[in-house]
Specification:
The complex is a heterodimer of chains A (about 350) and B (about 220). Chain A is of the alpha+beta class and about 350 residues long. Chain A contains eight helices and seven strands. Chain A is elongated, with a radius of gyration of 36 Å. The mean pLDDT of chain A is about 85. The chains are: A alpha+beta (about 350), B alpha/beta (about 220).
């Protein structure tokens, strides 16, 4: 039950009680008067006089009061409704936008102020975490550069034995993986802080898809995986060329990596509901339902990803999601164990 | 060939210097922008490796100063910021190339080599390495007189490798020049393409021309 209904019901109760009280008082008064005047049948007369009064004057007054009360509670609670509407739109990204205040200093205005202060503090904390990630990834780059460089220099040493060379090379592989993780982290931290600007230009999406298709075929060949482009339409849209290619290659690479030997990858590009819809499906091991909601989380790796010993940064899908949302599109994954896993990307066609 | 390395991080500066010296470059090192400008004023260099983040005057400002003074020494920018737009900003300021940190040493060397040899680049339409011939106008490839079918991407890869004959080509450099990627996709795309290209140009022929340099990249040359 809403506060408004509750208040109105209480109000109706109080009004009815007052009406009864007034009715009873009136009855007593009339009865007294009639007895004083030695009239006969005082009781019946008093009752009819009282009910007449109550029904003709009291009841309309109560109804009016109720209507007034209904209107009053609505007026009093309107700011609460506005506050609720505004508060439901709050999420991590727009903490900076405060809730609108009436500025009249009443209780609700005070509440809004407290709320805004809390939001500002939250925003501060979020910013500090973002800044921390950004600084951390910058700080990691210098020692990483030194480590990679020294290891590479060591690898060039002609006097190294085969075993030492192997060790240095495997160290270098891991260092490069670390470097890629730091790179991805930097990109995401920058995106979080709103420091990445996309270079939008009119693009032929289908050309990029066909290019990703060609690359995927090459990537899939060693594992005997078949890649097909089931269909495409000529689609032009405004987008950042590099980021979109990164997105497509990332999805294609995933579809090949998380697949079974002699499996299949199917791509498709079409126009649907005023958007470009790109799907890529593979015969992978599937993603268990409990992993699906977290699949875009940074460093989240489902069981399948772990058991397959596939090397990755753990950031690929987070980056893919960022690229899509930066283009005001949506990305979604449908999957179930031992069924086709399908990734669908929808990008607006633009004006 | 004389190269100036401007890098405030001592260890990075030191291994870059060692690596370039090992490749036969004469190397001078500066740790801040003002020293770099002073050094560039006194001596002519064939190339400058310039870190963007420097104490005091930063790399971009050094670069602008150089270009303002009509100093056209080729410059390779290094940056730890890895900003997507930074590359464009650097190239606009007059840089000739850009390499984000952490970089691969082989990559750095290959780029410095390309930088200092830029003017001497092979501009001919017919590229030749041993009996491998590539016509850059008709896109026709032949080895020992036999035609070789290449896809568009394979052609671009081969042209790039042949134009850099004898020089080590890092993975990132190949991705950038052949695929036009400004990011490391973290895939083994380059390795797989090289494998396919090797099938076509090397499998049935001697001597082998396309060599892998462990942990660094690839090089196309007659003798290993």
């Amino acid at each position: 039950m809403t506060i408004r209904t509750r208040l109105t019901l209480w109000y109706a109760g109080i009004l009815t009680a007052s009406l009864l009280l007034i009715g009873y008082g009136t009855y007593r008064e009339i009865d007294e008067q009639l007895r004083h005047e030695h009239r006969r049948e005082p009781v019946e007369h008093a009752i009819s006089e009282t009910s007449e009064l109550v029904f003709q004057v009291g009841l309309p007054a109560v109804l009016l009061g109720l209507l007034g009360g209904w209107w009053l509670t609505r007026r009093a609670l309107a700011p609460v409704k506005k506050l609720t509407d505004a508060a439901t739109k709050i999420h991590e990204r727009n903490l900076r936008e405060p809730l609108p205040r009436t500025g009249n200093g009443d209780e609700l205005d005070q509440l809004t102020k407290v709320f805004n202060d809390t939001l500002a503090r939250l925003d501060d904390s979020f910013n500090r975490i973002r800044e921390f990630t950004l600084h951390a990834s910058h700080e990691l780059k210098t020692p990483l550069t030194v480590l990679c460089g020294e290891t590479e220099t060591a690898l060039r040493d002609e006097s190294l034995s085969a075993a030492e060379r192997d060790r240095a090379a495997s160290l270098l592989d891991e260092l490069r993986r670390l470097a890629r993780i730091v790179d991805g982290l930097t990109l995401l931290a920058k995106a979080d802080a709103g420091q990445v600007t996309l270079k939008l230009e009119p693009l032929r999406f289908d050309e990029l898809v066909r290019e990703a298709y060609a690359d995927a075929q090459i990537l899939a060949e060693p594992q005997g995986i078949r890649v097909e482009l089931a269909g495409w339409e000529d689609i032009a849209l405004p987008a950042d060329r590099h980021r979109l290619r990164q997105l497509l290659l990332n999805l294609a690479d995933n579809a090949v990596k998380y697949n079974q030997p002699r499996g299949r990858v199917t791509m498709h590009l079409r126009r649907a509901n005023g958007a470009a819809e790109f799907t890529i499906a593979n015969t992978g091991p599937g993603i268990p339902p409990e992993s699906l909601p977290r699949i875009f989380d940074r460093f989240y790796r489902g069981d399948a990803a772990h058991s397959q010993t596939v090397e990755g940064s753990g950031l690929g899908l987070s980056i893919a999601q960022w690229i899509v949302s930066a283009h005001h599109g949506t990305i979604q994954i449908e999957s179930a164990p031992s069924k086709l896993t399908t990734v669908t990307v929808r990008l607006p066609l633009g004006s | 060939m004389r190269v100036l390395v401007v890098e405030d991080e001592k260890k990075t500066a030191s291994f870059v210097r060692k690596a370039l010296q090992a490749e036969g470059f004469a190397v001078d090192v500066c740790h801040n922008g003002d020293d770099a400008l002073a050094a560039a004023r006194v001596a002519p260099f064939d190339g400058i490796v310039l870190d963007i983040m420097l104490p005091g005057r930063d790399g971009l400002s050094v670069l602008r100063q150089l270009r303002e003074r009509k100093n056209a020494t080729p410059v390779l920018l290094l940056s730890a910021r890895g900003e997507v737009n930074e590359r464009v900003e650097g190239l606009n300021a007059g840089a000739d190339d850009y390499l984000p940190k952490p970089f691969e040493l082989a990559e750095l060397i290959a780029r410095v080599r390309a930088l200092t040899r830029r003017s001497a680049e092979n501009k001919s339409n017919i590229l030749r390495v041993a009996d491998l011939v590539l016509d850059t106008i008709t896109h026709r490839a032949q080895r020992g007189g036999t035609d070789i079918e290449l896809t568009a991407r394979e052609y671009r890869l081969l042209e790039f490798l042949m134009r850099s004959t004898g020089r080590l080509c890092g993975r990132m450099m190949i991705l950038e020049k052949v695929w036009d990627y400004d990011f490391d996709p973290g895939t083994n795309l380059v390795d797989v393409y090289i494998m396919r290209l090797r099938e076509k140009i090397d499998a049935d022929f001697e001597p082998k021309l396309l060599h892998t340099v462990r942990g660094s990249g690839y090089v196309l040359k007659e003798r290993p």
